[in-house]
Amino acid sequence: MTAGAPPRGRLLLVRHAQTVWHRENRYAGARTDPALTEAGERQTAALAVAGVGEGVEVVVSSPLGRAVRTATPAAEAVGTSVEREPGLREADFGTLEGRTRQEADPELVARFVADPVAHPFPGAEPPAEAAARAAGALRSVHARHPGRTVLVVAHSTILRLALCELIGLPLSHYRRIFPRVENVAFTEIALPADPTGPAALLCLNRTVPS
Hints:
This protein is α/β, with parallel strands linked by helices. It is built from six helices and six strands; from the N terminus they run E-H-E-H-E-H-H-E-H-H-E-E. It has a six-stranded mixed sheet, with helices on both faces. Strand 2, helix 2 and strand 3 form a beta-alpha-beta unit.
């Protein structure tokens, strides 16, 4: 680190714990909020222990219940409260909300799989807009907590879109570049001082010990 430079801080991104819809691979977006499973509840406890080990000082969450429920034990473990960030809510999946892809129109599914940015499901939030708001939210969190280790609990699609936006990767390939963001696994990024510069991806899906 250059003498006199501010400490970089850390952003640890985490997808919320397992929900009851994971078994069916059912889409849970901004308008749906399934409960955590028993396994998911155990994952929140494991994340709390891991957060202490990582030196977490700040806990930020999407406002959706499944994310807040995941973040709360970690916040309690490090002696703080959950800071809710509206910009980190999951993308809205439109007509796919609450459904599996097998329950949707096959033609719409095929177009979505080929290019999810050009062909989102009807009524869905445009992925470019979702990526911009989530990236903006992460930059804001980083600016509010300089030099601190921040745990950010959010959602699969919004995190993948934000990663592409921040690193400078094509949004249309977010599902191929980041096929999965595992539940309660650490993905760490470093944001540059210049907000126009690309982020660095330091780790992806680092498992939290159970």
